Amino acid sequence: MATTAQAIPAHIPSERVRECRLFDREITYDNPYDAVIPQIHAGPDIFYARNVLQGPVPGWVIRRAADIRAIYNDTENFYKQGNTQLASLIGEDWDIIPTELDPPRHSGFRTALNPGFSPAKMAALDGRVRERARHYVDRFKDKGRCEFVKDFAIPFPVTIFLDLLDFPLAEIDQFLEWENILLRSNDNGSRAITVRAVKTYLLKAIADRKKNPGDDLISKTLQLEVDGRRWTDEEVFGHCMNLYLGGLDTVTANLGLHFHHLATHAEDQEMLRAQPSKVVVAIEELLRAYPAVTTLRICRNPYTLDGVTIMPGDYVAMSTPLAGRDPDLYDQPNEVRLDRKPSHLTLGFGIHRCLGQHLARRELQIAMQEFLAAIPSFSIEPGFRVPFFLGNVIHVEQLRLVW
Fold first, then answer.
1. What band does 2 get if pLDDT is binned at 50, 70 and 90?
2. pLDDT category of residue 7 using cuts at 50, 70 and 90
3. Which helix (H) or strand (E) holds 299?
4. Of 5, 201, 255, 319, which one has the greatest count of Cβ atoms within 10 A?
């Protein structure tokens, strides 16, 4: 996946062009948090790679958390509209809401959405979340083993997401197939077909909720207002696409990474088993140490960083996996200390901080509490090599656990 000369614009200094395995969109059996990220932090503060987005699309990679935080806040020089390229893949220009919105348009939509995703609203889901966690753990707890990703990390959060949108659980495999193509494939033809399929499905669901409103997130979004008017169908679709992309992947990725850590660090596992109240604090350190997601910004005005100039139209990778292991910010960043209580960028920062952060945290906390309460000391199946997927969402493909 070396950077090709054809992909390099004239304003990019040749000495700043580097390979970046972090976005290779392939399987590795080396833990990237040990083998890839520390190597990047040994290099320059900013460099240019050919594969920051599917396509592949080239762009700048920034390694320091302070610089990433500054760009998160700089809506004058960097914007998000169109950064996923999903609408443009099918020749359209709708926005994923609120992810692809910029100020001042962003504020009205985010203000309308925030109450529905408040800590209190998400806390009200605790009973459902805990019941779902116990349901999946009960299915394998007496077997002495599980394939954690397939048996728990996927169905647990994804079925909660489907419940919230009142989508049939029987269609989970189709939803996951579409999501896999959208977020991992470099085949833009397949991705365009999938965007159209997801859009058709979501618009049909929106039309149904208009006729038969319920208590689901789509029905609630149809009641929201912005600038004194109800949202259009296209705007509701844009928000549903945001829920779809976020709801089917990120918590699953975090669960796989967190439980891989516990399976390979018996002392941490046993401490949390003995003191389950410490799970809440521990999750923040695990989020800091194992961030999964890299999003993108697009440069609006010339912007100088570390002696190089990012030019208008350049893509910039906002990599939380790099931010979470930044040696300029954290003492011994590659050491996981569950009592660290870190601040981190894993769930975003500023106006685009993750809309579903409160639900994500509760899902992670409850999953760990319920799993540790029901399952004795576990480890990775002897001889099993854990496959990590490198890309804009790092995740564990399979995790065979035994106890």
1. very low
2. low
3. strand 294-299
4. 319
pTM of the prediction?
Answer: 0.94
Which sign, positive or negative, has the C-alpha torsion 277, 280, 286, 288? negative
CA 303 to chain centre: 27
- Which tokens belong to 84? 């996923």
Residue 155 CB neighbours (<10 A): 20
Question: How far from chain centre, in Å, is Cα 88?
Answer: 21
pLDDT confidence of residue 286: 98
In the 8-state DSSP scheme, what is residue 17? B
Q: What is the CATH number of the domain that holds 388?
A: 1.10.630.10
CA distance 296 to 30: 25
Count of domains in the chain? 1
Instruction: Work out whether strand 400-402 and strand 145-147 pair parallel, antiparallel, or are unpaired.
Output: antiparallel
Contacts of 265 (CB under 8 A, 6+ apart): 336
- The residues, any chain, with a CB within 8 Å of residue 278's CB and separated by 6 or more, are 271, 272, 338, 339
Which residues neighbour 266 within 8 Å (Cβ) at sequence distance 6 or greater? 377, 379
Contact 283, 364 (CB under 8 A): yes
* Planar angle of CA 75, 55, 301, nearest 5 degrees: 25
Domain that holds residue 394: 5-402
Number of H helices, E strands in the chain: 18, 15
Beta bridge mates, 310: 303
Q: Give SS3 for 304.
A: strand
Cβ distance 54 to 294 under 8 Å? no
Helix axes 126-138, 155-165, angle to 10 degrees: 140
Long-range contacts of 128-133 (CB under 8 A, 24+ apart): 128/160, 128/163, 129/160, 129/362, 129/363, 129/366, 130/366, 130/370, 132/156, 132/159, 132/160, 133/366, 133/367, 133/370, 133/371
Closest CA to 187 of 15, 3, 54: 54
